[in-house]
Hints:
By secondary structure, the protein is an alpha/beta fold.
Amino acid sequence: MIVKGKVHRYGDNVDTDVIIPARYLNTANHAELAKHCMEDIDSSFTSVVKKGDIMVAGSNFGCGSSREHAPIAIKESGISVVIAKTFARIFYRNSINIGLAILECPEASEKIEGGDEVEVDFDTGVITNHTKKETYKAQPFPKFIQNIIAKGGLMNSISEK
């Protein structure tokens, strides 16, 4: 699977309370969560993000609480993949569980800038920055995890069996 989109760039230690502020956790409605995604760190995010766009961040992305609301809000906002130097462990697992594609790639995290046009090949792990004409290599997910993401989450991939 290949995705291509415009980059929304964030720094290190973006925690789950920034991704989806706690004041909005009184709903399980995914579309409602997406309306408030990143609003405390980037008030323009929801008005400029487009389906297929890509989020790039630094180290320890998704630190904080263990709630699944954070990756759900990102996915529902239209983001096709999050690329970071590193992810908080529980955010990493929650992302796979709900079908949000994530890749760890320190080089891409350091070199990709907001607004860049980037393409990601999930089969090979190759990240192509069309704006800078550079490529970076992430470790691709094994096929079974790619299947979970393609099906929209763990429960969707299990229910088909």
